[in-house]
Amino acid sequence: MGVRSLGNTLASFGYKFGTTGDGALPPGPDVVSASGAFAAWGGGGGGGEEGSRGGGGGCAVGTLTLDAGNYTFIVGSAGADHDVDAAGFGGAPGRSHNGGGGGGFSGIFSGDLTPFTFRGDGPGNSEDPAPNRDTAHAAAIMLAGGGGAAGQEPTSDIGGGGGGGTNGDQAPPGQGGGGTQTEGGAGGPGNAGTGNAGSKLLGGWGPHTAGSGGGGGGYYGGGSGGASTGNGVEAAGGGSGYINPPFGSVTLTTGDPGRHPTSGGAALPGNPYYPGSAGNGGHGDPNSNVTAGAFVIGPYSGASISVTPPGGSPSPVPTSGQAFNTAGKYLLVVS
Fold it and tell me: What's the mean pLDDT in 275-300?
């Protein structure tokens, strides 16, 4: 299921929460919240048909306190290959002609929102209707943005923007813009069609008349590249990350752009919570090295946490922590 315990890894770093002296306070009848370390990595953007690379996913790492109740977290999909139409989780759009699809955001929302699809735009119209997106957007607690996709162009100097962090990275000037805290990234220009802007939780998709890359999903998604009869304007921007301050304190870091001299690596891969491989942008055709995002529950104390994975059953999360890196939507219950 793409799930692993973090007990052995995280224990060596000495993280403790809810302690006095040398011992942890045992849960009592008055414990109504769970507090601890949480982290998320957005999915990497897809590579382009002729060699350019997608941007790396952003990350959000810090501490959250979750009161008793239901929550939904998303592990963002890896950016789609240039010949895959299906949209992914975390607002990740499908490919657009010969460009890749943007990576999906990863993060957590208040409430049981699992009836929503959390998928991106594409030819199958798989995205949630606007009322559902408005509801989810208002319920966001912590997000890491997905990387923007590469367009068709065959050059190492033009690639997708990294996911946020705070704001998503713009693809090279004149191409798809990064999502911010207040609006989606602008679509890039193109002589065969103007790119589409990102929006709440959705990376921009299209235009599919030429080889434009899709924007990364995020709190606000990145804009897609424009469609061009030549090279140079088709890469997409990354989606933005987010933290709702009443829930805790989180560091937001943007992923690497998929262009020379960087190569679309995920943000902060050396962080102790990084679960091995997440958020890498795809390398050209066949979109090699691209990876989905991840959501990590680190060591925590207080109330109990259980998680229901996609298609699975509720399972308790050990207090030492657990990492989830299969793309999809999960129900988290604090009790």
Answer: 96
